[in-house]
Design brief:
The structure is a single chain. By secondary structure, this protein is mainly β. It has no helices and 6 strands. Strands 1, 2, 3, 4, 5 and 6 form a 6-stranded antiparallel β-sheet that branches.
Length: 85
């Protein structure tokens, strides 16, 4: 995801699409910097939610990179909560 001007992010929710279930690693990159890792068992239609300790300011890009999965995977949707600066 990319924004034309910086935003501040307060919460991210990802909806997992996966078959079969299993151990995965999904990294969130904010402005191309690894910021959060979801690691462990995941299942179809699971929600992965992250609320950072402090709002993430000056965000221009958000990337989700999956580096481990026993199956095909995708995102059924995502929600990014925050505000423009």
């Amino acid at each position: 995801m990319a924004w034309p001007s910086p935003v501040t992010i307060t919460m991210i929710e990802l909806a997992v699409e996966q078959s079969p279930n299993g151990d995965t690693i999904h990294d969130l990159l904010v402005n191309e910097v690894a910021t959060k890792r979801f690691e462990g068992p995941t299942f179809h239609r699971q929600k992965l939610v992250w609320v950072p300790d402090a709002p993430l300011a000056n965000v221009r890009t958000l990337t989700i990179r999956t580096t481990k999965s026993p199956s095909w995977w995708g995102w059924g949707g995502y929600v990014v909560v925050g505000f423009s600066q």
